[in-house]
Amino acid sequence: MNRRSRRGALVAALVLVGGATLLFTGPVGISSLYGDLEESEPVRPTVVGLKSGPARYEQVDYHDGSWDELDLNPPVPPDMLRPLPSKFDIDVPPVVVQPPSSSSPSNAAKPPEGLESVADDTLESPTLPSTPSSSHPLDIPPLESDDPLPTYPNLDGAPDLSTPAPRITFIVIWSPRLDTTDPYLPNFFASIGANPSIELLLIKIDKYGLKDGGCELPRASGISNVREVCLGMEEYLDLHVQYLCEVWGCSKDEKENVARLVEERAEGDRYNSAYRPFRAEVFKKWMRPDVHLWGWCDLDMMLGNVERAFPWDLSSEFDVYVGAAPSERSKVHMFMPGHMVVFRKSPDVARAFFALPEIQNVHNFATMPWIIRPNWAGCEEAEYSHTLFMLTDLTFLRFDAMVTTWHHLSTLNGVYGIELSHWMPHSLLPSSPASDSDDLLTTDGAFTHPAGRAIVNSVLKERAQTAPKRGSGEGERKSFSGMGEEMEVVLRNDKEMMSDFVVWFDERYAVLYESPLGHRWDNNGQQANRYTMRRTRGGPVFERFEPVDFTLIPATVPHEGWAYSQGNRPWLREYMYNHYQGEKYAPWYALPEQPLAKGDVLYISKDSGAHVWDGEGKMLFQTGEATVKTPMMEER
């Protein structure tokens, strides 16, 4: 049989088999024989930021000893979320972020040589105009100059659109439980005022009935970049219900049930954590449309110089910016601290956090154990952090931002950790006749001694005049340099990783990684700048170290033959904020009623007290003990 005959016979056989199959199954196909195959599973709509993959089941233990098996990634009804542009399926060509040109900043967020780069294939919404090359493809496009900004008629706390847009809007909820004055508030508001390029939106509610449903008097009068908005509890809760049901597509009955649950759960939410990632959407009527970054922060803190401390050169590269504490541990805990996180202001970024099973849909919201647990209340540090790092594709940058040293300085022009503070007494005063050394002061005594205050003031004044801002412009300090090191890491939350690590919440929400580079840097990486980042949606995670920018406190009475350096002198490391989390519970804790003025210095030793002196070195306030040892009593 020739080739043509064999081909004809094969075609004839296929036709006969197909016809027999059609007669047997009917025109609807083989599924007509099995009723349970008639309806396919609902198709999960693609949502920007949600990780794709099969459902994951997990046993959930309740506090009464019972347990249940819950689907942590259930199929979502098609009407739950409207489909949004996703990198997983869309009928438009991908927008690829081009590599920087030769004229671009040399520190763009990219892997160093030797590491394979990954193109950002995040897709741009077809309904949005193209954004500048320096912006993230999903960023909100800047308003055209000839387009009028919206007006806010009769809106309490409306933004002033005649001023430049702030670089970050921090949204803070103020709901005091006690009718007392917190001593940290004056300095917090003063530090906001000292950073005119940002703003604070203070939402004030009377959750605990201290003011019969009303609001306190203005807390930050005269500070132009603080907007105080007084909301009744009914309106405050309704704003959350409206947003949740907008995302879920609630029916009338479902919306009523959501409203009931939101109200019932409000009082137990001590830190207003339950809906933190959604604040920019919940309170969007008070948000300027030309603001591209928003964040949350605590009130028991002081902001430093944000222009010098925030990584502005990377401010359009990531979805989430995690202001973390430096760590010397080989296992690095990844979480969003309740005291400082910054987000790209985008509805898509907010919606990505609905990957958290407990809020994924109306049914889960009503039936699953709520995320404000009896034994821990900060779900932003547990559940939402796990969601960001393990359940979404969002990009993020973790950077060292918080002062953690035992001795530290706070001013309206910067906050500083003091490294090697115990070297301060050395070379500060001339040697006494009774000793061949001047090392006769305590650490606190040296810093608060007139000579210590004078040298600290001198160092701070010089740094304020010479330290560059962070950014990619001429003369600005870039986050990444040619001296940095970088390697890929793997985020994990398995039992082996948690075997010798303790967290303050259910460890199934903990996310850690093993640092491959920390041992190469001072104090296992604590005294360097550590960055952890996911540069592309769904891409790999990298850890990077950079040399720290520091200022040495010089010796006032140098010893002959000594060479002073980071190894034998105290030095200052600048951060973005100083959080008085531990200090406010110390027996000595007290602060002056008046906030710091320009030039004032707040020196704190966590175990002994606080001192404030002015720009001339005059002591204005002190609490606790900081003593000068009597030289005659000192035995060497």
Description:
The chain has 636 residues and is of the alpha+beta class. It has 2 domains: 402 residues, no CATH class; 162 residues, no CATH class. It contains 11 helices and 23 strands. The strands form 5 sheets. Strands 5-4-3-6-10-8-11-16-17-14 form a 10-stranded mixed sheet. It has a 7-stranded antiparallel sheet with strand order 18-19-13-12-21-22-23. It has a two-stranded antiparallel ribbon with strand order 1-2. A hairpin with a 6-residue loop joins strand 16 and strand 17. Helix 3 packs across helix 4. The protein starts with a helix and ends in a 14-residue tail after the last strand.
Q: How would you concisely characterize the structure shown here?
A:
With 636 residues, the protein is α+β, with helices and mostly antiparallel strands. The chain has helices spanning 3-25, 185-193, 233-248, 252-266, 279-282, 306-309, 347-352, 362-367, 383-391, 443-448, 450-466; strands spanning 57-61, 67-71, 168-174, 198-204, 226-230, 293-297, 301-303, 320-324, 331-333, 340-344, 396-400, 407-411, 414-419, 485-489, 512-514, 529-534, 541-546, 550-552, 571-575, 577-579, 601-605, 609-613, 619-622.
